[in-house]
UniProtKB/TrEMBL annotation:
The lineage of its organism: Bacteria, Pseudomonadati, Chlamydiota, Chlamydiia, Chlamydiales. One of its GO terms (biological process) is monoatomic ion transport. One of its GO terms (cellular component) is cell outer membrane. Residues 1-20 have a biased composition (Low complexity). This is Major outer membrane porin.
Amino acid sequence: MGDKPTSTTGNATAPTTLTARENPAYGRHMQDAEMFTNAACMALNIWDRFDVFCTLGASSGYLKGNSASFNLVGLFGDNENQSTVKTNSVPNMSLDQSVVELYTDTAFSWSVGARAALWECGCATLGASFQYAQSKPKVEELNVLCNAAEFTINKPKGYVGQEFPLALIAGTDAATGTKDASIDYHEWQASLALSYRLNMFTPYIGVKWSRASFDADTIRIAQPKSATAIFDTTTLNPTIAGAGDVKASAEGQLGDTMQIVSLQLNKMKSRKSC
């Protein structure tokens, strides 16, 4: 990103050089992360004590979190007298007072695992299990709920490994070098439980450990916009004049709206749970 704005009044020249700044996504937690799976299971039983199994099915997901977790950024306060920002301008604002949510499509998923009765004594049994699951659904819908730049994208595409500045055509129908946004989902689970058979009932007590990760190759997705200005605008971002005024055709005419907005789908891991 560019330097953080420091001007107390008016606008300033848009930054064109990258400056090291603290990553607002570090240490952030998702508000909600869910994966839904429907699958069929096939198992091989060995000596009535061990099961080796696999599942085949379909999964879909939902993620929701603070926009800082997705590195939502934009350019504010551009003082240039032109209808678009310069090609080498970089964002200077991190938008962390909003919400980003995404839905994935339904994609093929699979898992493998094993279960075993480790110890038996009368009606008591100590068992353990392990399972690993994987799926790679594409992002079906991306919603950015932000007062300064609110937008929705169906089947978003973005840039992988692309540093700032993004091309000015990013977010338009003419954008090139983009790929579909997809999430590589991995999860492992391990459990240990003690059960006791009482006629028709088998109460048990146990503990389960699990860890999930969501990896989208840190793809950066630009806000949709028009390739050419229509009614002097390329996006529907609101004007934020504050105590100043909105310029029509003078220096700072772009300064009161958020420009070159984009976000990044970072790699996320669940906290180890049990």
